[in-house]
């Protein structure tokens, strides 16, 4: 297979974790005889510094000419006081919107060898296996009006029926390939958008009689994610709720540093990125966990290129390295040696080589 992959490292730990992920992609290419043409572009703070634009036209053109995009992270204190249009985060929102990447898939699965780092009791966390399906191109992040004056500010939570329909259908389709359960999360006791959301879920579920659907309010969902996270299969929700709940869910399994995501539309094109941000306080120190970025490459192989065997090879290698007791600083047990980003990545690469020799 021959594919073009755009890589946008971004800010903070973005360059470190994408470098690790690209190395793993290169090993997959070599081992499975694929060709991935990797080209780099700028987004976020680095793009503001270079082009006074968090998403320059040439980056959009690069992504348009590619089959998939790998992104590190954007943002940092250097740009925090910038006006809204010149914030790194604006570049991320703009690329999601430009490519109509309405479905953000954030899998959260417990790995036995990481449970020591979970803030929850082992028996609560050990069977967690959920997929958060976050709507990504609507809601509060994009609704108009959005503006402020000195003493007032407004953001608008807007959803159309069509926007809700496509994400809900996506969630039902995903649930069919899993345990057949969907929790639709809203705030229908207060918000008009949530009432429409519920109506659409009720309508769409008629075509999926095999799927068990539950409506849940977002506040109690936040609570149940902690008390009984293993009860969730697919969680579908609007943009902002999904942002918050996915960070909450990420730590159940140990660290934000291991959670990948796929932002996709219907035709196979997708943007793959860790759920975590640019972690400016550890940038450049070799402390970043590259697992989320590496597992985002696995999601790219699976969702954009239909290379399931290659994707599983990466997931297996990552899990084996954890099982062998190798961790970066965010996951390490007291008294154990901390591996740097590069050392940990090399362990994954060694493991992929071992797999290949033994198969
Ligand atoms: P963050 O995710 O960057 O960091 C939260 C905490 O997790 C920090 O303690 C950090 O050190 C740790 N952490 C995150 N990723 C890690 C990794 N791979 N390995 C080890 N530790 C890791 O969130 P934040 O601190 O709220 O935000 C920092 C900046 O990142 C902000 O500018 C924010 O806007 C931006 N951000 C970007 C994205 C993105 O690009 N997708 C996502 C979230 C936040
Ligand atoms: C994420 C991030 C982004 C979001 C920010 C950086 C705009 O938190 O990808 O989860 O809120 O979507
Ligand atoms: Mn977030």
From TrEMBL:
Keywords per UniProt: Amino-acid biosynthesis, Branched-chain amino acid biosynthesis, Cytoplasm, Leucine biosynthesis, Magnesium, Manganese, Metal-binding, NAD, Oxidoreductase
Cofactors (names): Mg(2+); Mn(2+)
Molecular-function GO terms, alphabetical: 3-isopropylmalate dehydrogenase activity
Cofactor remark from the record: Binds 1 Mg(2+) or Mn(2+) ion per subunit.
Binding of NAD(+), residues: 76-89
Limits of the Isopropylmalate dehydrogenase-like domain: 4-348
Highest rank taxon of the organism: Bacteria
Main location as per UniProt: cytoplasm
Pathway where this protein functions: Amino-acid biosynthesis; L-leucine biosynthesis; L-leucine from 3-methyl-2-oxobutanoate: step 3/4
Enzyme class: oxidoreductase
Listed EC numbers: 1.1.1.85
Cellular localization per UniProt: Cytoplasm
Site (Important for catalysis) location in chain: 141, 187
Keyword flag Glycoprotein: no
UniProt: substrate binding residues: 96, 106, 134, 219
Catalytic activity reported: (2R,3S)-3-isopropylmalate + NAD(+) = 4-methyl-2-oxopentanoate + CO2 + NADH
Chain sites annotated for binding Mg(2+): 219, 243, 247
Stated family: Belongs to the isocitrate and isopropylmalate dehydrogenases family. LeuB type 1 subfamily.
PANTHER family: 3-ISOPROPYLMALATE DEHYDROGENASE
Chain's role: Catalyzes the oxidation of 3-carboxy-2-hydroxy-4-methylpentanoate (3-isopropylmalate) to 3-carboxy-4-methyl-2-oxopentanoate. The product decarboxylates to 4-methyl-2 oxopentanoate.
Subunit structure: Homodimer.
Database matches in HAMAP family: LeuB_type1
Protein name, UniProt field: 3-isopropylmalate dehydrogenase
